[in-house]
Amino acid sequence: MNSINRRAESNPWLRSAIGAWEGFLMKSTLLAAFLALTATRSLLAADGPATQAPAIQMAPPAAGLPAYPAIVKKETPEEHAARLKWFREARFGMFIHWGVYAVPAGVWQGKPAGAEWIMNRAKITVAEYRPLASDFPATRYDPDAWAQLAVDAGVKYVVITAKHHDGFALFDSAYSDWNAAKTGAARRDLIAPLVKAVRARGLRFGAYYSQSQDWVNLGGGKGNTPPWDEVQKRGSFDDYLAKIALPQVREIMEKFHPDILWWDTEYSMTPERAKPFFDLAYSDPNLLINSRLGGGVLGDFRTSEQRIPSSAMLGRALEVNMTINDSWGYNLTDLHWKSARQLIRNLSDIASKDGNYLLNVGPTAEGEIPQPEVDRLLAIGRWLKTNGEAIYATEGGPFDAPLPWGRTTQKKRPDGGSTLYVHVWEWPGDGRILLPGVRQPALSGRLLARSGAVTSSLAPEGLIVTLPGAAPDPDASVVALEFAKPVEISNARPLLKDTGASGTLADPSRSPPAL
Ligand code: H79
């Protein structure tokens, strides 16, 4: 992938201009440049005086790439760093996809038909879909248990679908009755008690809000699919944005004061349409938004869905969102669970690339988180109890490519020294691993899992670490090495490439999907 394509990929404005989904590449660099200019002009023209317009700034150059135009919050690099501090330190979050789609639970007319996309996939009409809310009782919903599970899993924030593409709001809304408090069996605001439970435990709270797609509310977007029901042709998208989406986001902000607004899908979001959302979100000085508002808004962190980039990216904060099986919403046909080992290594891999892991659960219509998801979250939590020092508040490791035996993270100390965390996934038979290109001796070394020193020695090819005995943890064992200065790698290539590979070893324990 060349650097221009990388620019296009990393710039949601360019992506949204061609209606591309994140991760798709632009074919024509000329088209990209043309669209960027057109979008800038139309934004300025539509917004009149510059004081009204969102700040158009050059997104900072990074990883050897030039700066490029994007709509970003006006703030200094120091202010930006302070606003993102908690998020960068968090490294691990829990995503919750909960809604009316949990009722069909992945099956429509006896056939598997996706999960939270089921209404679209199975072309269910609005008149057929609405009554499903009567079977969404949330009778076993225990927000304190969910929040406690989050704590026990070791996550630092929880993001829940306040409204997904089916338009059903889990909170009480004055702008549409298609919500859990006013329609169906639950008859209460389901977000409010979760916010309370999450915050009571010192965790941050994020609200997912599908701003563009809304398959039920009047005028809502249908993504890249044509309307499949006559009633979906009524209303206008701009009226929907002004009368439902924007006021609902304001409700979310006023009721819950989220730490994150998590937009999803940029379809049809022009700069003019994105601007009111941008202004509203940033009226809260502490709020973070992801990169999926569309219309050229860069957002505070880049998202990568179901895929771990092969290297750290462009100096921007990164969040990888992923399912534990292959479904976001509850899907009783999807038993394709990733192993705890895979999930732990994913967390280690993502942290080594300076990113956060947002790992999803899909509760049932009754409000229960499936046991396979609970089990895996608790396994990660147990690993973090021992190894959290190598994850929380770390930076990505100094190496330019994944290492054959595992990954690294690092922490810089105020005294100018640094700790390098060596996450050993594959404990070698001879007990020796190479940190290639390291030219600095380690002052000391220790395992996080048990006491005893770890020794290392410099060789022409790098630092050789001698691991004592057998692996303390077959999933990943961490060695902390102390250095007098930050570790620099000789002959490191610049972090330009995301080859598209996950960089994560295949999980041999995974079986084909059982349907
Ligand atoms: O909320 C989850 C997804 O529903 C949402 N983002 C995550 C966090 C998402 N919305 N759109 N997309 C992801 C990308 C679109 C994927 C699609 Fe498909 C491919 C839509 C139609 C084909 C996946 C497969 C959904 C239905 C079938």
What does this structure look like?
- The protein has 515 residues and is an alpha/beta fold.
- 49% of the residues are buried.
- It has 12 helices and 20 strands.
- Helix 7 (143-153) packs parallel to helix 8 (192-200).
- Strand 8, helix 10 (271-281) and strand 9 form a beta-alpha-beta unit.
- Residues 1-53 and 495-515 have low confidence and may be disordered.
- The structure holds ligand H79.
- Ligand H79 binds at residues 21, 97, 114, 116-117, 121, 264-265, 305, 321, 328.
Topology:
Blueprint: H1 3-10, H2 12-17, H3 29-47, E1 56-59, E2 68-71, H4 77-90, E3 92-96, E4 107-108, E5 111-112, H5 118-121, H6 126-129, H7 143-153, E6 157-163, H8 192-200, E7 204-209, H9 237-256, E8 260-263, H10 271-281, E9 288-289, E10 301-305, E11 317-322, H11 340-352, E12 355-361, H12 371-387, E13 395-396, E14 406-412, E15 418-424, E16 432-436, E17 444-447, E18 455-459, E19 462-466, E20 477-483
Helix pairs in contact: 7-8, 7-12, 9-10, 11-12
Residues 21, 97, 114, 116-117, 121, 264-265, 305, 321, 328 line the site of ligand H79.
